[in-house]
Amino acid sequence: MLVQFRNCFSREATFLWFLVVIVGLITRSDHLGVTSIIRELMLDPGKYESLIHFFRSSAWKLDEIRQKWIEIVMDSGAIHRISGMPVLIGDGVKESKEAYRMPGVKNMRQESGNSAKSEFIRGHLFGGLGVLIGGVAKLFCLPISMTIHDGNNAILQWKESEYKDDSHVTRLVREACKVALALGEKCWLLMDRYFLTGPALAAISEEVAKAGKALVIMVTLAKSNYVAWWKPDDPNSVVIGKNGKPKPAKSFPIMDLFQTKADCFRESTLIIYGKLTKVRYYCVNLIWNQDLKQEIRFVLVYLDGAKSILACTALDLDPGKIIELYCFRFKIETLFRAFKQVLAGFSCHFWTKHMPYFNPFAKAEVMAAKVAEITDEVVKESIINTYDAIEGFVMFACIAIGLIQLSALTFSNYINNNERFWKRTYSSSVPSEATTSANLRYALPILYKCHDLALVRAIRSRRYNSDRSDSSSDNMLESA
Fold it and tell me: In the chain, how long is the greatest CA-to-CA distance?
């Protein structure tokens, strides 16, 4: 799979560094920045500057690597389809950065019920997009891309990016539509309640108009304070006034339907988070958003005493299917946990002295204005290179954890029966990312055997005093 990335790099040496970085990210045992790759693979410390330069190199472009990654995932045959359609999952993730001269860093509020997280942090807001892979035994959310979605307005303007005028919500929706276009298939798009907005639905319509075909069916959770209108042809849309004459119905809170339509709820047994569960629901198509006036299918759900409202852009989709589909959205949360804890995919520290000093007590508008006032092209180029290095590192981490997930699905029996990595209990027949990563780390002795592999040659050529260390390691292995 890694060899297929060769055409994305204009220089052979840069491609070989790419191989080293991916293997280093997969197998490293500590997460202290880029230097952990040097330590894990026992590379020559003198190569550190070359490794840093790789992330700022002009020999590769992020868009080409992302496109190739999508093609590789498609060819892997691991994409999970529901009703014949791939499942895309999108969400935002915030990563704390104690940095003062790093592009894209800003003060943010964390909306989390986890008491271990502070309410306010400074760091990056990434928009993550993944595709569901696997089968009945286990499903993973494989990351397609993670890009910075906030605090970067000026940088996107300098780069003349197509997303320069987009918010976090609209950009992630557009990225999902472009992934669906690259896959060549209509896809499900699962997102949380934060993304059910008028601009998001408008962005989908714009991308569909550009592509000339349907791209995604969006399934989200609706906020409890949303209001809607009955359709004009619905009997509920006409209200009899005091004078006995009909008058158009006004908007009403969707939550009110739990009371006014209590007799219309149906009970069904559905697969909720992998278990058969009894659910009561009521399905209705309503006009939503005062500006768009778009018809949306809403499903009001009673589950374990809790009330929820699901929304779907497909007006004829079975409500039970909508409920079961939305349950897969949580897979991206488990991806973020593995991405942070197993791979430490955000653990990069790229910065530049040309970036204006970050004042944590200043307002976001003040800090954004300082960056926007920059006119020197050399300074702009330095900031852009650092910004691209951050996004490049995170993209390489996406590829690394994607390969870990594909390895878990492909070699599950081998990993579970590996005598060198004992587990007391197995929660699933398919190993987790943490278990697979540890097994790949144990497989590193392949460096002493498969001398002709490009991957092995790339690592051995960058190791400290490679001839002496490799020959001594070979002798030790043979004697053992």
Answer: 101
User: Residue 91 and residue 173: Cα distance in Å, rounded?
Assistant: 10
d(CA 407, CA 437): 9
Instruction: Give the tens place of pLDDT for each residue, 327-382.
Output: 999 999 999 999 999 999 999 999 999 999 988 888 888 888 899 999 999 999 99
CA distance 167 to 360: 22
Residues 32, 144: Cα–Cα separation, whole Å: 24
Rounded-to-integer distance, Cα 432 and Cα 212, Å: 40
Calpha distance 39→36 (Å, rounded): 5
Query: Which residues, 6+ apart, have CB-to-CB distance to 379 below 8 Å?
Result: 354
Tokens of 229: 């209108």
Amino acid at 148: I
pLDDT of residue 137: 87
DSSP notation for 334-354: HHHHHHHHTS-TT------TT
Structure tokens at 265: 């709820």
Task: Count the neighbouring beta carbons within 10 Å of the beta carbon of residue 110.
Answer: 13
Q: Directed axis angle between helix 168-183 and helix 198-211, to 10°?
A: 30
What is the spatial distance between Cα 186 and Cα 86, in angstroms, rounded to a whole number? 7
Report yes or no: 357 and 100 within 8 Å, Cβ to Cβ.
yes
Residue 323 tokens read as 């409920």
- What is the C-alpha separation between 177 and 359, in angstroms, rounded? 36
377-410 helix and 331-341 helix, angle to the nearest 10 degrees = 110
User: Does the pLDDT value for residue 442 go beyond 90?
Assistant: no
Asked if residues 14 and 54 have their Cβ atoms less than 8 Å apart, the reply is yes
Question: Residue 231 is which amino acid?
Answer: K
Q: Over the range 23-48, which residues count as b (16 or more CB within 10 Å of their CB) and which as e?
A: bbbbbbeeeeebbbbbebbbbeeebe
Q: How far apart are the C-alpha atoms of 421 and 115, rounded to whole Å? A: 33
Give me the phi and psi of 72, to 5 degrees please: -65, -40
CA–CA dist 62, 58 (Å, integer): 10
Predicted structure pTM score = 0.91
Instruction: Give strand ranges (E) for 273-420.
Output: 275-288, 294-303, 306-312
Phi, psi of 396, rounded to the nearest 5 degrees: -65, -35
